[in-house]
Model the fold of this input.
Amino acid sequence: MNRIVIASNNPGKLRELGELLAPLGIAAVPQAEYQVPEAEEPHGTFLENALAKARNACRATGLPALADDSGLCVPSLGGAPGVHSAYYAGKAGSREERDARNNAKLAAALRDRPDPDRAAFYYCVLVLLRGADDPTPIVADGVWHGTIVLEPKGTGGFGYDPYFRTASGRTAAEMPAAEKNRASHRAQALAALAARLAREPR
Done:
């Protein structure tokens, strides 16, 4: 399996997954190259949404597909934004405009809360399907713990990264890409996926 379709049109995710898969000798092809529309994500869990996206890409291309569903969870907000992370403050506007509104809504929700209530974690689940009807998908996940800051710091990353302070004391947006790609929830999930792939029969 040296060529897979990435079931996403999110440029940040595509960039990170491409960089993380390259050392494994896997060519990651964005689904847009095959004119695959984005799948609906109506489910209440990250896993169900990832499965839906991977099946959609497999059916459209006939190739193995890797789908990521991920988001930011704040326990004191009942797990929000959670599976709604991308559209926490609505679906209108460009990705950058949505990110700005999402972050503003999150900061406002936590502004008057004590520091312990600002604990948060990024969660990522990866699903790899060899085909659309694969009965045994490869599933791996990862968690990255941190805290939410009320003012953005850093210019890297995407999404909530400027507000997500890591154990290093810096936000994810302040970390060099290579360092983030070693520590992030997506990196942890991909490391687990790679370990599973290494056990796959060739």
Q: What stands out?
A: The chain has one domain: 3-198. Helices lie at 11-21, 46-61, 95-110, 177-183, 185-198. The beta strands are 3-6, 27-30, 65-73, 119-129, 138-148, 164-165. The chain has a mean pLDDT of 90.
